[in-house]
Amino acid sequence: MIVRLRRSFDVLPVLALFGSCFGQQKQPQDIQQTVTVVGEAEPVALGQTARSVQVIDTQPMSLSLQEIADGLRSDSSVDIQQRGAMGVQSDVSIRGGTFEQTLVLLNGFRINDAQASHFNLDVPVPQQAVGGLAVLHGSGSTLYGADALAGVVHVSTWKPRESSLRLRAGGGSFGGNEQAVTGALANQMRSLVVAGERDFSTGFIPGRDYRSESASAEGRTTSSLGESDLLLAGSDRSFGANQFYGNYNSWERTKGWFVGFTQAFREKTTAAVAYRRHADNYILTRTNPAYYANNHVDASWQGALRQTVTLGRAGKLFVGTEENTDSIRSNSLGQHGRNRTSLYADADLHRGAANFSIGLREEILSGGRVVSAPSFAASFLLHNVWKLRGSAGYGFRLPTYTNLYYNDPTTISNPSLKPETAWNFDGGVDWYPSTRVAASVTGFYARQQNAIDYVRRSVADKWQAKNLAEVRLTGIETSVQMRLQGDQQLKVNWTAIFGSQDVLQGQQSQLVFQFPTNRARVEAWLHASSQVALRPAFTVTQRVGQTPYSTVDFAVSRDRGMVRPYVQGTNLYNTGYAEIQSIRMPGRGILAGIEISLSRR
């Protein structure tokens, strides 16, 4: 599914943070008019969408965020499970689904990894070149295809409005240091953004050092034909993987390459093509590389064509076709390949204050199997204050090559795994008492079949890949947002998830039942003066069968002027916790530096 972004970042305000007012600043924008680029066939205002969506504008917060995962944490329905900091390795899941059930898009292109879903969030674009994030809660397979079983994360690159140059350097705890450069040339008809960053650390404990580098170049131009967009990006990450995959002091290095091209033909047609390549070199015992090592290289091609048909005053019909192929060459997984061809249609209809969306995707898998993914959503706006909404959708996911073929001293594969499927239902109420305040409550239910998990009877056994017959998850998510003067914001949200473990029949679960049963977050975006920005965040998380833990983060920066110092503090209470079983997270950390910002209109 290709998402046209031309309009989105002209009006995309920050929804991720909230705050109180210090001094006189410009009037805030209308929350209902914030544009979302996921969950609908084309960008629409949040006040019109029938889906549960969160939007995070990361550019104003670039000096307060260390990585993309930090921005996603502002959504309480998103669970980030980190093994390594600074984008080294993070798993992302939504509404209690596993990290394998979340689809990650980059400018509308799929970047999920066919080898292993641990690399889905290996976004090759530097964090400073990311413009915003959007999160769809619930199934998105009708529009986006496989892997969008529990939700979708959409990463959009920055679209500059003026020419600029930013240089950054900093350092801090655990031998950490960072450097970044971002340059942009822009006018009304075209833009070019070139960015690069590198992050290093000696590690907060032995065997957890890392080096992360990434670079990207993106050019956009508008002609009589339409808008053209070419993105080139690459990343190189090497890191100590001590305890990542069992009781081993391991080491790993990943490399990623991406190229994507999108061409819009006026307002009716969009064509796109992309290529992604990812390499993974894994050494089980760092001090003895010859004992056990894996080398994987997977590649994927994707192409898409979409047409928009206007249905008069009734709405629009979106039809499209996509082709996806992926392959892998590996010393342990072997050589494999598969392809998917899909056709889809989605009708967006409007009648008065009511909006309806009904769609269907037919995806043909290798071997001739056809998967149908229908969806329906509706919303009704009452007096421009209350919005009632509901949706139902079918999602599916194919097993990764790791699920099917990977064996090591602790893991047994299963070549007979079936694809995961799920029906997702939700209903909610949004309240807009003013243009500056929004509150929402949503209940959701997911019924998964053939959910893929790794299970074992006891710690003496190996983990075995297996389909679980049926997994049922029920939950509620709430959010209150307040936008005051200027870009100051306050956000409070909470998500609770419930799921019975009877399907395990006494076995231990490695993936499916590791979700947070409760997660609450309070976050603010404040200005202590006209130039000093503050970003405090407080989070409480309780996972299945575990005691709750809390974390406090705080960032302060100068966000105007040429010289912009910044300080980022993480886990300031020095809480001991793990987001993945037995993988210890860092304690209190401080990172400080200076950014030099030059701009020309």
Automatic annotation (TrEMBL):
Principal cellular location given in the protein's record: membrane
InterPro entries membership: Beta-barrel_TonB, Beta-barrel_TonB_sf, Plug_dom, Plug_dom_sf, TonB-dep_rcpt-like
Record keywords, A-Z: Cell outer membrane, Membrane, Receptor, Signal, TonB box, Transmembrane, Transmembrane beta strand, Transport
A GO BP annotation: siderophore transmembrane transport
GO molecular function: siderophore uptake transmembrane transporter activity
Any one cellular-component term (Gene Ontology): cell outer membrane
Domain TonB-dependent receptor plug: 48-152
Domain TonB-dependent receptor-like beta-barrel: start-end pairs: 226-495
Subcellular locations according to the entry: Cell outer membrane
Pfam families from the UniProt entry: Plug, TonB_dep_Rec_b-barrel
Keyword hit for Signal: yes
Membrane topology field: Multi-pass membrane protein
Family to which this protein belongs: Belongs to the TonB-dependent receptor family.
Protein name per its UniProtKB record: Iron complex outermembrane recepter protein
Organismal lineage: Bacteria, Pseudomonadati, Acidobacteriota, Terriglobia, Terriglobales
